Amino acid sequence: xxxxxxxxxxxxxxxxxxxxxxxxxxxxxxxxxxxxxxxxxxxxxxxxxxxxxxxxxxxxxxxxxxxxxxxxxxxxxxxxxxxxxxxxxxxxxxxxxxxxxxxxxxxxxxxxxxxxxxxxxxxxxxxxxxxxxxxxxxxxxxxxxxxxxxxxxxxxxxxxxxxxxxxxxxxxxxxxxxxxxxxxxxxxxxxxxxxxxxxxxxxxxxxxxxxxxxxxxxxxxxxxxxxxxxxxxxxxxxxxxxxxxxxxxxxxxxxxxxxxxxxxxxxxxxxxxxxxxxxxxxxxxxxxxxxxxxxxxxxxxxxxxxxxxxxxxxxxxxxxxxxxxxxxxxxxxxxxxxxxxxxxxxxxxxxxxxxxxxxxxxxxxxxxxxxxxxxxx
Length: 377
Description:
Elements: H1 2-11, H2 13-39, H3 44-53, H4 61-90, H5 98-115, H6 120-145, H7 149-168, H8 182-185, H9 209-226, H10 228-238, H11 240-245, H12 250-273, H13 290-300, H14 305-321, H15 334-346, H16 349-376
Helix pairs in contact: 2-3, 2-15, 2-16, 3-14, 4-9, 4-12, 4-13, 4-14, 5-6, 5-7, 5-12, 5-13, 6-7, 6-12, 9-10, 9-12, 9-14, 10-12, 13-14, 13-15, 14-15
């Protein structure tokens, strides 16, 4: 009886995804450790340990709690970018434009905050709307002209970056390439803490963005799995012609999907830049990696909104842990390498699930054959 329960548990899709993700994480860390050994074997053990420990590197509980809060602050936008990728993927679209939509959201929220002196909720709304409109361009090109969304999204990523740089140059600090600080220019645009900062040793950057990002993940799950709209969106992604035959508006659904995905990425940018933790550099020539890391978090989480919550934290945990590597032996980007390895291995999650199901099928066939022989005797 216990063996049957164990077999049925291994057939469960969520369990298979969890096992596959854990295998990816372990293999990624092991390969990363080997790379550290090759670079400098004397400090490899301590380096990998520091990356894994992250904020626990600090012996002071107060300091550790503050940096734990900072890791969570960076996890919130990563989670929303991951949800953006996940939502589009569930509807048959690959939203590689989450990075550009994140940029658009950052530009809109900061301009409304610094240039127009709007309150935080208006800035968040502006970020969502502008990012959604940008994503809708890719959706419309896909729906009406069958332009591959990957191509259009890549082009829009760079258009968004340089447009935002020009826009935010109007609110740039006179003595640096960064935008003005929110705390001195418009404190009302900063996200409220609602007492959450006190839980992390008075970390002033911990805001309502943390619970709201988790709420967003739950709402995405409800929309996709429990609503008529979610069913129609997924049906459109599986087969546009069949959806059209059933009376569904396939073009509208495609555009709506990209709008929702873009809005999520834009919200992630607002949830980060409106904390005041970082200012935008108007001279930057590369798209922030948050949107691309969202792809990794979505797949590591098994393309499930709840799994993505934990995957987003893990990727940010490893990335932040790179700051505690001995810089005389290794560069801080070693954690990015390990994250990249885990991301690469995530591509094998589906192959792992296929392999596991085939192995279980062969085992069941063998047991059925053995029972048949026993019955024959």
